[in-house]
Amino acid sequence: MAHTYDLLVIGFGKAGKTIAMKRAKAGDSVALIERDPQMYGGTCINIACIPTKTLLVDADRHRRASVGAADPAEAAAAFARSQEHRDGFIATLNAANLKMVADAGVEVVVGEAHFVGPHEVAVDTAEGVVRMSAPRIVVNTGSAAFRPDLPGIDSPRVFDSTSIQHIEHLPAQLAIVGGGPIGLEFATLFSAYGTKVTLLETAARPLSRFDEDVASCAADILRARGVEFVCQARTQRFEDVDGTVRVVLEDGRSVVADAALVAVGRRPEVAALDVAAAGIELTERGAIKVDEHLRTSVEGVWAAGDVNGGPQFTYVSFDDHRVILADAWPETYPGLAGRSTAGRTVPTTTFLEPPLATVGVSEEQAAASGRPYAVRKAPIASLAVMPRPKILGESEGMAKFIVDTETDLILGAALLCTDAQELINTVAVCMAHGVSATELGQGIYTHPSSSEVFNALLG
Q: Is 433 designated active site?
């Protein structure tokens, strides 16, 4: 017989753990199934956002303290200390997440779950197989680093975004395959320690996902840190050569380094779930197929976070939990009535130094839409009304806004500057609630603050 609950949550991600705690506190019997105790709290807590940003902050502190006095031995020691800092911090957060969920009344079950019916799963635990069922199930199993099927990729010198965080020695030379946010962030991290980073990008120019002026500015900042870009570079294979790894490209070019990082995206974690046994449909890209309320093809089963193929951000997963609460328990959460994924305004940040944050459309997209717009942009160093970056010695970068000239609404923004990861949230709220560019620009902001960029370009 299966153990029956009011709610089953598969995966300890942001949406899943939040729903589990709220429903347990509301009186439901809730079980949260997690296959790996090292993942209590989810991807963000254990292997992604928090650990990588911890490493990035430590790296930047080292870089600033070592200006003009670069010492490879001290860089290696500083990197090792940062790894210890990361591991200790993450262990604390991991334990805190388990306690938080358990204290809320959620039963945590450790084991690999797979569906055996629309509302029933079998969980392979250390004590044997346990069957569990519930009228409501939330799948929140996240994603994993994608490793393409390339010869030599199993070399011990080839890493992914998780394993590179635990590399035993700071590489003098690092080749990064993939020029997206993950690759760019690790290029920023390792270059801070003096590692010669070669970033292999399949596109014709670096940071091709951004407008050319923004991308050019960001690429110049990275080049000044010693990052080399190789574009139109498609990897064919990896070869171990005399204690190094050679990344061989399809056109015959190659790059030799101490280590290689494969950063070509992440894939939804669905393989072990046997979703077909439940009748749950997948998309062509292998994610769980959902509608705007995050319902799967099976009534009473929802999918949240990376596993549903949406934007792979923990804050999107957090909003997913609101969408599911509104749909599954509308009478309990009237303040969330009508919540869905339709029309969400989602800001993003790539953690370069300084950060590069965007929201809405790019200038290229605005031009393609045919609607009337104006561009308001400037280098950060030229903005006298915004002195905070200069005070911090971080005046690199630029700010750019796309504004509808008929409605004065903000269509998009790209901020490459100090505190961009905070500023972009304000822009996103304004866009979501119809606050005009002029209204944002005429706000009264404390001084000196990065928010004064709005006065400078929109006031």
A: no
